[in-house]
User: Fold this.
Amino acid sequence: MFKPRLFAPGPTPVPEETLLELARPMFHHRTAEYRKMLEQLTADMQHIMQTKQAVFTITGSGSAAMEAAVASVVARGEKMIAVRAGKFGERWSDLGKTFGSSVVNVDVEWGTAITPQEVEDLLKQHPDAVALYTQHCETSTATVFDIEGIAKVVGKTKTLLVVDGITGVGALPFYMDKWGVDITVVGSQKALMLPAGLAFIACSEKAWKQIDATPPGALYNSLRAYKKSLATWDNPWTPANAMVRAALKSTGLIKAEGLEKVWAETRRRADALRAAAKALGLTLYSKSPSDSVTAINVPEGVDGEALPKVMANSFGVRVAGGQSQLKGKIVRFSHMGYTDAFDLLAAVSALEMALGKLGYKVEYGVGVAAAQKVLAKGC
Ligand SMILES: *Cc1c(COP(=O)(O)O)cnc(C)c1O
Assistant:
């Protein structure tokens, strides 16, 4: 028997004190008690997103906030640009289509990042685009984009920059206001050490001008409705109030650790996993590898669809395989959130044993030793 260990890029492990909070008796939400909680969570999320703008807490998975970022921002027939560098970029494009926007799709080779120069050229071609939608980390390919550089070029135009920070915020250095990101979207079940069920979104003043002038394309996920309620620390609909109460435990842990330390430790775990892969003769899929999630190429001769299954079923380590065109070609490991150095060593060890079981020549411990050397430097 093995302990179940979550290494897929969402949902990620949740600390015990947060889980226990979810077991406490239910309470009413139209109360001063709840308003205080939402006020605190808003402040904590402002810190984690590095913004002074209001952060709205939406009930739903990350895609609910993505939907709000399209439906409340781009009117029917207006133009938007969707950066499609993987599965989550496709979601921006699908949302635009659903809400009747005129979508310009920019197809970026999977595993590579769009560059600020490419964005600059795009905006020259499409000066009438209301917004450019991208990821901070494209989780399907484990690729990080240079949002600071992209924000610099978008900031010179009328177009808004909308960033899906779902595997970025809370894991990678991210400064919404300082960089000049117009809309940031986050989900609870990746770097924030929470179950799925809450999504967060913040908008710049430039974005609010557009939102206030746009007839909302959705009722439930209307940003105007959220703004109106938050003025009295309230939600427009019944909130997931038990999740809000529990979220404060996890955001409290992030604050206690220090946001910059959380980023640095996430990076060290990523460095350790990359060192392990190299020592095992494995290569990374991404040309711009993220520190929040790593995609390792399945080596020649190994059944790539079996690898994550063996890791989970024989060793308890749940990683994710590839999606669509990457099915059977990569395995993806999260190192965000409530994961420590010893969890990572267990995952590397399980990777070695699963590879050995599937016929790959492994010298047991080589990957673990390489990872441990990197992790020991941080202790
Ligand atoms: C997980 C994830 C999402 C959100 O997906 P949901 O299933 O709705 O939570 C969106 N974008 C990225 C980059 C993600 O990693």
